[in-house]
């Protein structure tokens, strides 16, 4: 059994949720951000660890990519606060040029992710969300083995659900004996702004069937939403939490339910 890492003295993280996806580009980082915004709106103290080391996108979504995280003693790293006070740690906040590729081998990436837990001054957090790299590779394995993850949220697009990729993520979590809070189907449909009709651009979703087969719950089905994308692109995702307050509150309630209370 692999020993779990311990956070810095003075850190108190109540729940850790890892966000996974079978493959890249399904909206995992966008959904992680939406979860953070929704929980923050309800008053929770939230942090995001961007463990997608080679493709970090959290700082840009929150408009903090111009800010640098710092360490006054060379050991403890201070996370960067977003406008609404969500604490973020990402490699993009530590490197000089955010468009430089991270040409690192697996072990170094794994060690960095662990340091994002052990060496970051997270302080008091109700929830730490981990934006995992896509797939079921080395880094998700390191995170599941060495960090005390309480639960997993799987993000998928309608097309993946029928394929093996989502099942692989689900099976990995099951093998590691970490509870799966549920699945978020992203880009599920498009709602016409004129007639409010839902259009299933990728065909009628198979999410219910797939979720039943895998014995997991559907947490949320998110539409293709140009306004959400625009706000994410502009680094103003927290504005979405204001203009779609009801939706975000509902999403946070579902997460709260699954987490089983955040004491
Ligand atoms: N609900 C949505 N509606 C429309 N576009 C979306 C939605 N969710 C995400 N997108 C867009 O899809 C693209 C991929 O999203 P995102 O970066 O969150 O995916 P990802 O799964 O984290 O990708 P990766 O981990 O491979 O970098 C982005 O351009 C994002 O704006």
From TrEMBL:
Belongs to the Mrp/NBP35 ATP-binding proteins family. Coiled coil: none annotated. It holds the Pfam family ParA. GO terms for molecular function: 4 iron, 4 sulfur cluster binding; ATP binding; ATP hydrolysis activity; ATP-dependent FeS chaperone activity; metal ion binding. It comes from the Bacteria. It comes from Crassaminicella thermophila. ATP binds at residues 22-29. This is Iron-sulfur cluster carrier protein. Keywords: ATP-binding, Hydrolase, Iron, Iron-sulfur, Metal-binding, Nucleotide-binding. Binds and transfers iron-sulfur (Fe-S) clusters to target apoproteins. Can hydrolyze ATP. Gene3D superfamilies: P-loop containing nucleotide triphosphate hydrolases. InterPro entries: Mrp-like_CS, Mrp/NBP35_ATP-bd, NUBPL-like, P-loop_NTPase, YlxH/NBP35. One of its GO terms (biological process) is iron-sulfur cluster assembly. CDD domains: Mrp_NBP35 (cd02037). Homodimer.
């Amino acid at each position: 059994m692999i020993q779990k890492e311990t956070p810095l003295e003075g850190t108190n993280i109540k729940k850790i949720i890892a966000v996974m996806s079978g493959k890249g580009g399904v909206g995992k980082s966008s959904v992680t951000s939406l979860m953070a915004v929704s929980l923050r709106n309800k008053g929770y103290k939230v942090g995001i660890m961007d463990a997608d080391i080679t493709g970090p996108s959290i700082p840009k979504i929150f408009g903090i990519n111009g800010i640098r995280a710092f360490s006054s003693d060379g050991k403890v790293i201070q996370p960067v606060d977003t406008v609404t006070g969500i604490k973020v740690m990402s490699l993009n906040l530590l490197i000089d040029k955010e468009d430089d590729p991270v040409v690192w081998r697996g072990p170094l990436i794994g060690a960095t992710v662990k340091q994002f837990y052990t060496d970051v001054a997270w302080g008091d957090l109700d929830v730490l969300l981990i934006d995992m790299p896509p797939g079921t590779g080395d880094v998700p394995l390191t995170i599941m083995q060495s960090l005390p993850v309480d639960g997993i949220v799987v993000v998928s697009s309608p097309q993946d659900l029928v394929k093996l990729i989502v099942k692989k993520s689900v099976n990995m979590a099951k093998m590691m004996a970490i509870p799966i809070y549920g699945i978020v189907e992203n880009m599920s449909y498009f709602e016409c702004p004129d007639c409010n009709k839902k259009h299933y651009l990728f065909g009628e979703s198979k999410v219910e069937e797939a979720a039943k087969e895998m014995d997991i719950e559907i947490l949320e089905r998110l539409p293709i939403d140009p306004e959400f994308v625009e706000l994410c692109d502009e680094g103003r995702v927290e504005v979405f939490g204001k203009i779609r307050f009801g939706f975000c509150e509902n999403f946070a309630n579902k997460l709260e339910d699954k987490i089983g209370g955040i004491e």
